[in-house]
Amino acid sequence: MDFLTRRGALAGIAAVALGPTLSLMPFGTALAADAGVKLGPSQPFDFDHLIAQAKALAGHPYQPPVIRHAEILDKIDADAAQQIHFKPEHQLWPPGSGAPFPAQLYHPGKFSKAPVRIYQLTGTTAREVQYSPSLFDFGTADFARKLPDDIGFSGFRLMHPGAATDFLSFVGASYFRSAGELDEYGLSARGIAVNTATGREEFPRFTGFWIAEPTAPGGDTVIHALLDGPSLAGAFRIAVSSDKLPILKLEMVLFVRKEIQRLGVAPLNSMFWYGKHNRAQGVDWRPELHDSDGLALATGGGERIWRPLNDPASLKISAFMDKDPRGFGLLQRERDFARYQDDTAFYNRRPSVWIEPLTAWGEGSVQLIEMPTSEETSDNIVAFWVPKGPIKPGAELRFAYKQYWLADEPNPSEAARVLATRIGIGGAAGKPHPPGTKKFVVDFAGTPLDALTRLDGVEPVVTASRGRVMGPVALPVVGTKIWRLSFDLAIDGTEPIDLRCYLRHEGAALTETWLYQFLPNG
């Protein structure tokens, strides 16, 4: 599935209203067949079993999924999918079972035809959940009852404890997303990205999920997943924290079938249309429109970097070389409702996602892919880690990381951070504007700047890959704790220009590093 249209597919399987709450059950009591859910025979299972299964799968040519009854599934479009509700009395690990999050299953449809197997896992015993139309209310989409009892599911979601809404959803290829700390869905993640922006991108998919019963009250919810695609197969273990903050711990073992040009580890997909620095591109009435406004990096060498996002006229790829990165993420730093004025989509509440490696990832790069968009329903931003070197057939790769779905990055730097980026015509007010010149204004704020004044010798450091930087100056904004760095750039040529700036005092950096790719041709 094209990730540019992924948001539309997700919209077709949005959260649905639920029914009454369930009666309490003792901890450790599974929802069994007599409660309406039919389970298959018991099978032994653990993560080692899944790794062995993925390895065996990768040893054979890829077999694409068989799509049956496509003519009926095609009728289950976005509107019909909204009519089909999983009955809450049949959810796995319901309230009172001791599990922190009940699980509800998704019905297949136009945007998710490939069958996904769902297993209920208790200890080391797995039993497959059998599809039945009795598990769903169909509303006006009653025609879907014609599907056979072995059609399968398309994914699942975890519900807030005791609530009627979900906070984590797995559906479509290897996509998943969380509503985050502020309880609003936005950007999405994937299990793995293969050959993104190469002209031959693949979308491996999760073909099966094993949802485990917690071993103790308040324990993590552990999800195992089998991934398969043309170039690789893999086994995933995903532990979902039972705390109020959505934090996932992912471990994966990948087995490569075919050489991969660009392997994207911990991929994040988001949307950026326009913000403060490219407001002229926005034809909508709202002041800003984005799920994320920047890429944040914590390098292996300890530098903190902020890279504002662009909506370019053509595809752009930026690579930030590193060794053993400490973290990266797509963040939504602008939290002021007034900057969006959107009381329906609530972009001010969209989650930030931070990736924290749990092992040494070695050499490689965080890569940022920016694509043009002219509306808010396209995911035109992708970020992931790309290991150095070719990914050859027969390779076995292991990665582990934490994934935080929060309002901000989990361990922010002590350095002052970038608040805003603005771009306008160059020159000074009241004087002729020099041709071919742009003015850049970058706002910083944070503890290292709070006690300093304009007399303390705060120094702006600005560099450009091309062109000429003129008149950089850094001054506090009167009546605030904001420091504003501004400079003019005499533009040289039409190719992208990489800009870099930060503030320092007595030779020491006070702020994170602002990186920006200016596009003279848009």
Short description:
This protein is mostly beta strands and 522 residues long. It has five helices and 34 strands.
Task: Tell me what the structure shows.
The protein has helices at 6-11, 47-58, 70-73, 78-83, 447-450; strands at 43-44, 85-86, 103-106, 117-122, 125-128, 136-137, 155-159, 166-171, 175-178, 188-190, 193-194, 205-212, 221-228, 232-240, 247-256, 263-270, 272-274, 289-290, 294-298, 304-308, 316-323, 327-331, 352-357, 363-370, 381-387, 396-406, 417-425, 437-445, 459-464, 468-476, 483-490, 497-505, 508-509, 513-518. It has 522 residues and is mainly beta. The protein is elongated, with a radius of gyration of 25 Å. The protein starts with 5 loop residues before the first helix and ends with a strand.
List keywords for this structure.
single chain, mainly beta, Beta-galactosidase, Chain A, domain 5, Immunoglobulin-like, 2 domains, 10-stranded antiparallel beta sheet, elongated, disordered N terminus
Please specify the SSE layout and strand pairing.
Layout: H1 6-11, E1 43-44, H2 47-58, H3 70-73, H4 78-83, E2 85-86, E3 103-106, E4 117-122, E5 125-128, E6 136-137, E7 155-159, E8 166-171, E9 175-178, E10 188-190, E11 193-194, E12 205-212, E13 221-228, E14 232-240, E15 247-256, E16 263-270, E17 272-274, E18 289-290, E19 294-298, E20 304-308, E21 316-323, E22 327-331, E23 352-357, E24 363-370, E25 381-387, E26 396-406, E27 417-425, E28 437-445, H5 447-450, E29 459-464, E30 468-476, E31 483-490, E32 497-505, E33 508-509, E34 513-518
Parallel strand pairs: 4-12, 20-34
Antiparallel strand pairs: 1-5, 2-6, 3-7, 4-5, 7-8, 8-9, 9-10, 10-16, 11-16, 12-13, 13-14, 14-15, 15-26, 16-25, 17-18, 19-20, 19-22, 21-24, 22-23, 23-26, 24-25, 27-28, 28-31, 29-32, 30-31, 32-33, 32-34
